[in-house]
Amino acid sequence: MAQQHKQYAEGESGELYGYTGKDAPAGTKALVEEDGKTLTPAGLKFCQKRGYPTPLVETIRVIYDQYHSQAVGDAIEASALNADLMIEKQNNTKKMSERLRLDWEAQDKAFKANAAAKK
Q1: What is the pTM assigned to this prediction?
Q2: What angle do CA 104, 108, 112 make, to 5 degrees?
Q3: Per-residue model confidence as pLDDT tens digits over 7-28
Q4: Of 2, 9, 100, 115, which residue is 20 to 30 A from 67 by alpha carbon distance?
């Protein structure tokens, strides 16, 4: 039985897909040959477009692993939670600012009334 190598393909908008077998997923261009050791012309173009001086399968493998690691997923989740917390903090700040504005207005009215009463 032939050993199946992890292969990579580029989607229409530049995202990387990993797959095994002969055929790349529909709508993608294979970047690695079936042997898993050489790049296709699309793979060479992929590396050149991104400015990698020596186009290698390992380069594509590292890029794929970087964007599909658990750390990236955790970072995305943390960013979403942080965005939610920032909205909550901004809303709390708005409420506090409104309370302070109303308090200052009340103090200003009281001061003006007291100054008018003294005249």
Answers
A1: 0.54
A2: 175
A3: 888 888 778 888 887 788 888 8
A4: 2
